[in-house]
Amino acid sequence: MAELTGKYLVGVFDDDDVILHAIPKLRKAGVKIHEVYSPFPIHGLDDALGHPRTRIGIAAFLFGLTGATCALTMMTWMLGYDWPMNIGGKDYISLPNFIPITFELTVLFTAFGMVTTFFVTNGLSPNPAPVLFDPRSTDNKFVMAIEMGKNKMSEEDITKALKDLGAGEVNIKQF
Amino acid sequence: MHVTSPVRPPLVTGGKTYADVTEDVCRHVEGKPTKEWKIAFIVSLVVLIYGTACLFWTWWEGLGVWGLNKTVGWAWDITNFVWWVGIGHAGTLISAILLLFRQKWRTSINRAAEAMTIFAVICAASFILMHMGRPWLAYWALPLPNTFGSLWVNFNSPLVWDVFAISTYFSVSLVFWYIGLIPDLATIRDRATSKVSRFIYGTFAMGWNGSAKTWSRYEYISLILAGLSTPLVLSVHTIVSMDFATSVIPGWHTTIFPPYFVAGAIFSGFAMVQNLMLITRVVYRLEDYITIEHIESMNKIITLTGSIVGIAYLTEFFIAWYSGVEYESYAFINRATGPYWWAYWAMMTCNVISPQLFWSRSLRRSVTWTFFISVIVNIGMWFERFVIIVTSLHRDYLPSSWAMFSPTFYDIGDYIFSFGLFGTLFLLFSKYLPVVNMAEVKAIIRSSSERLPKNISGVAKGARVANPSFNKDAE
């Protein structure tokens, strides 16, 4: 996670529907939203915030491809070239028999590669005390952070807009 | 506006708010262990210690302490292995396949079911290690360059496929479960009042902050993990069945094994989930989250998979006759009428007849009946594996080799070990981790709650509103 600096306005909402509907209105009014934090995924939030679609699927596919290639190369080399063995008269390189392990390693590489990518791109690491705008955002509140340094509107105007759109409270957070 | 379709029964009752969900689930993690939990834990631990002693002797003395003989070379060890792996399959079905099918009722049971999967696979793996006799050489199953000549493992063998399948299944299930746990661990971290629990839960919560970007990637990878786990779980029991099906033993050498084993696995796994969840929901007062609807849905799956298993038994029998293979026919007639007839008919009664009782709506909505039939199903599925393994082996081609198997003290003790291990792990999980996936349940409240409270967010109760030291730290 990038270091947070400067002054933030933190709008705390009670209802996921309310915050979802507030976002387009705020953005239309010219407010730049830093990020929204919620206790559970809210569908449509990405589009409302204008976040680009995640590309983690591409990474997952590439990891899967790596897994399949590694598995096939390993088995072909070991049983086909390094120490060919006659097993029940089967071909040294008998592809149908290599399918199960190829599949398993594809899944293994994809899962672990994708999850590692997930941790890296989200900046997740063992950190017992991350910086949060409001700790209630992992319980029952929906929190919108607005970075004052990146907004031209005055603090009072944004506070008023947030309150009008349903924020229960608006706090100031200085880093 | 809140509209609930009349055809869809509510999944969360009692008009729960988001704060209620947090409170109802976290209460058990944060509170002191209850007396019941302590008693159950001590019992499990005693069973585990007893089992470990038996296991120690098995390894010290060798596999001769088991009742195996030169004809029946696999018995309780592999029976227990297949039984435990099968049980594990239900957790993946609930967390992955039901996610792909968008079944919202999975959300309140997936956490515990996945935990059950992981613990069941650990128990299964322990039998693999046991039956190796020399478990310290277990790494010989891996394709490692070795000093005994550059001989590699045989990738044509289903036993080697099994090594890859089980270890991939275990590690991917663990990752899937952990990813799902992270948001809930963050909830516990932010409510923690003691420094120690804040540090421990906080470390495992990986600095989760619930930002929109994180959630979107989280949902995306959950979907892909579900998409990967679905064929994975099917492949695991398929490969387990191939351990038998690719051999030329009459009674094992059948092409029906993979689907038949997978259905049986889900069947027994759901029965085990029922047993665990019926106890957990009462002890933890989670009746509003794990409702009769959830129990009924699982019972429907039990009936479906039980019927598939029943058809598979009949098909096997039919094909044994229709194929005209003398040895195959004999294997099946011997199963039903030979010296192990009681095991065969126990299997038939428990697995084929008992799940059919769930056609009655009142029985499948009855907690007592569900618990009872689930126990019966698990007994039946254990017998299924015993019947397949032992009755197919005990009458060899040569009548002079015919033998019977009877379990010894250590066969039984090593089986008891797995119960102690499973019980201990599950009890630790149910005390120290949230048994219900809070984030996912909160996400379905709006669409699936019985009635929505005026303020859906709710008011966090008591001293645990939020970490009191939090704002001081940040300011």
Arithmetic mean of pLDDT of chain B: 89
Q: Could you give the count of β-strands of chain A?
A: 4
Task: State Rg of chain A.
Answer: 25 Å
Give the strand content of chain A.
5-15%
Biggest interface goes to: A-B, 72 and 78 residues
Q: How many discrete structural domains of chain B?
A: 1
Examine the secondary-structure arrangement and name the CATH architecture of the largest domain in chain A: 2-Layer Sandwich
Indicate the CATH class of the largest domain in chain A: Alpha Beta
What's the total number of strands of chain B?
Answer: 0
Spatial strand arrangement across the major sheet of chain A: 2-3-1-4
Distance between the termini of chain B: 39 Å
In sequence order, what are the helices and strands of chain B, one letter per element?
HHHHHHHHHHHHHHHH
Note down, in words, how this protein is organized.
The complex is a heterodimer of chains A (175) and B (475). Chain A has 175 residues and is of the alpha+beta class. Chain A is built from five helices and four strands. Chain A is 47% helix and 13% strand. A four-stranded antiparallel beta sheet of chain A has the order 2-3-1-4. Chain A starts with 6 loop residues before the first strand and ends with a strand. Chain B is mainly alpha-helical. Chain B has a single domain, classed as Formate dehydrogenase/DMSO reductase domain (Formate dehydrogenase/DMSO reductase fold), CATH 1.20.1630. Chain B has 16 helices and no strands.
